[in-house]
Amino acid sequence: MVNVGLIGLGTVGTGVARILTGRRDLLARRLGTELVLKRAADLDPERRQAAPLEAARLTANAQDILDDPDIDIVVELIGGTTTARDLILEAVSRDRHVVTANKALLAHHGNEILAAAAQQGVEVAFEAAVCGGVPLILALRQGLAANRIQEMFGILNGTCNYILTRMSQDGMSYAQALAEAQARGYAEADPTLDVEGIDTAHKLAILVSLAYCAPLSLDPISVSGISNLDPLDLQFAREFGYAVKLLAITRNDGETIEARVHPTLIPRDHMLANVNGAFNAVYLTGDAVGPILLYGQGAGMMPTASAVVSDILDLARNLIRGVRRRVPPLGCDGALESPRNIKPLDEVVTNYYFRFAALDRPGVLSQISGILGKHDISIAAVIQKGREVKGAVPIVMITHEAKEANAKQALMEIDRLPIVSPPAVFYRIEDPHLHAAQI
């Protein structure tokens, strides 16, 4: 028998309790022994009352879980980066294995937690921390272990993907799409962590660590969100054959690693372009396996609970066989001692989408293109529409590959032109077809 203690009976915690209690026979067959939810803790009496457990196994005090000597695995599902950190570190110090879905905690304090677990010889598992029910971390740790991961593009936040889908397909404004996402329960009352790309950055920090056998590191990741995205740019992107997604991007060039989160134009025939609504997906390329797409529900009670229980089963199998740390939590021995250099965003080379509001007069396009050329930026395509507002027209360009620093310098110079109404709008493009055309 393996005993589980659950801390947190929110949406995901309730789902975990339902699976552990409602599917005991199935789980026992898969595990070879009984898996028991021995105790669960939550401060909220209504959540405790609604939990599928008898009152004797419920408590308001998380410390009761840690103090129970019969509990083998502690599951932390309260979120946050303070109390959760303290509880996990105490569980580790008491020789308990831990399962968590807490991506923010891992991004900020994961190295400390994993180092403590290594010293104690216990496991910390976190499949549900990225992409909910999609078994992405399992794939990176084990299924793709023979590969050098060359690049990875991820739609890691269902809230942002839902908003962008509604803006793109139905012409909604950002405010309208956000309000609908909140009404449907996809977005929080304060959506900042989602729409500003912070949640995606937390997840990318975990993926970079797993992909490249490196410590968890959030600070070097460049982050921008979708809150300032204009539907006009979605329309122009569509005319050029692109969709706009909030992507987490990492790429290994040998010496350094790219790690960035931002709205990105991708070709409409790319598999990620057709990931819509609140779904998540990761498109990655391994040097042996080639391109792979992992797709599914990235949030919600049961998909995320499914991932949590998969971790519980994995740890339980190790327990009943007397095995510890069979697979390192970050997929590599010594990952915490092997930092990798993150390429500064100004050094990144990619294609760009530019939109300028310029006076409708002869020579404007040549002035803009001249400044771009001075900064080693060449134009791949251009659209100049009729008047958007009195005296100004939108000029939209797609560029060949250019360095980020050069793009920023060129836009600053163009914004100072008297014929342009600043600021210029720009987004990055990930398009292998465009790169191939340039070659």
Q: Would you give an account of this structure?
A:
The mean pLDDT is 93. α5 links the parallel β4 and β5 (97-100). Helices cover 39% and strands 25% of the residues. Strands 7, 8, 9, 10, 11, 12, 13, 14, 15, 16 and 17 form an eleven-stranded mixed sheet that branches. The chain has a six-stranded parallel sheet with strand order 3-2-1-4-5-6, sandwiched between helices. α6 (103-120) runs parallel beside α11, α8 (158-170) crosses α9 (174-183) and α14 packs antiparallel against α15. It is built from 16 helices and 17 strands.
Outline:
By secondary structure, this protein is of the alpha/beta class.
List the helices and strands and how they pair.
Elements: E1 2-7, H1 11-22, H2 24-31, E2 35-41, H3 45-50, E3 58-59, H4 62-67, E4 73-76, H5 83-93, E5 97-100, H6 103-120, E6 124-125, H7 136-143, E7 149-155, H8 158-170, H9 174-183, H10 192-195, H11 198-212, E8 222-223, H12 231-239, E9 242-252, E10 257-267, E11 279-286, E12 290-297, H13 301-320, E13 349-359, H14 364-374, E14 379-384, E15 392-399, E16 402-403, H15 404-415, E17 420-429, H16 432-438
Helix pairs in contact: 1-13, 5-6, 6-11, 8-9, 14-15
